[in-house]
Design goal:
Layout: H1 2-9, H2 30-50, H3 61-77, H4 80-84, H5 86-91, H6 103-125, H7 130-152, H8 176-194, H9 202-219, H10 226-253
Helix pairs in contact: 2-3, 2-7, 7-9, 8-9, 9-10
């Protein structure tokens, strides 16, 4: 992005080419994917903070809008971390997170809003890519916060490569925040099951289930073999959906 940014600012023009000119190797594991996204997010954040498109000489209005959107995307996506902590706040601490008249009405509103959002993403990315797109945004949100912290502190990576093709590690400290998030969500569901207080927030239970199903995709990529990863995802997601459905039905019945 930095190269095209400088070329555009010096008067060069670009055109859309519908056919890929080159194809790279996608990260095979969640650890490599996290490392790649961290580097990309740091590049975009560094551009936003220290070479902002709004004041960059030589750019047209549309070019400023494009680069501003691209560099802002990681920062905006990191807000998902607040959304992801909602189920625990509601289930464990009973924090009031909505102003709806009842849990049922909020649940109906929330599900319809979620469905419309997914349809919007499907129109952009395609039906098959929608779960992967949503999962990647949630998976990347703590990585984007780390990128902001590193850039603000002046940290620079040791090398300029983006993805190491020869070595694809299965685990990395970069996925620790996502693992902790999953642990918190699972704890919230278990806490809900044994909570004896009245008016348990069923909408937060469904919320936690949706987040877990979403995170199951990227976090299960611990093997380079895609077929193996996809076989793991089905029982994991099925177990989550079944548990949330049974607890929701029990709540409405009592």
């Amino acid at each position: 992005m930095q190269t095209s940014y400088e070329l555009h600012s010096h008067g060069w023009s670009s055109v859309y080419h519908p056919v890929p000119i080159s194809i790279g190797t996608a990260p095979a594991t969640a650890a490599v994917y996290a490392k790649q996204r961290l580097r990309w997010a740091m590049d975009g954040t560094r551009l936003l903070l220290f070479d902002n498109p709004l004041v960059k000489p030589g750019l047209s209005g549309w070019q400023r809008a494009h680069y501003l959107h691209t560099s802002l995307s990681p920062l905006l996506a990191s807000v998902q971390m607040i959304f992801a902590m909602g189920p625990m706040l509601s289930i464990v601490f009973r924090s009031q997170l909505s102003s709806a008249a009842s849990q049922q009405s909020y649940l109906l509103f929330g599900l319809s809003y979620l469905a419309s959002t997914l349809l919007f993403i499907a129109a952009y990315a395609g039906m098959r890519s929608t779960p992967r797109t949503v999962g990647s945004v949630l998976f990347n949100s703590p990585i984007y916060l780390l990128a902001l912290a590193r850039v603000a502190s002046g940290y620079r990576p040791r090398s300029s490569g983006t993805t190491e093709k020869a070595f694809q590690p299965r685990m990395s400290l970069l996925v620790l925040p996502q693992i902790l998030l999953v642990v918190v969500l699972v704890f919230s569901i278990v806490f809900y099951a044994f909570d004896t207080r009245a008016d348990r927030p069923v909408f937060a239970l469904v919320w936690a289930g949706i987040l877990l199903v979403t995170m199951a995709g990227p976090l299960s990529a611990v093997s380079e073999r895609r077929a193996v990863v996809e076989r793991w995802q089905v029982p994991i997601r099925g177990t989550i959906v079944l548990a949330v459905a049974l607890l929701s039905a029990w709540t409405f019945a009592h």
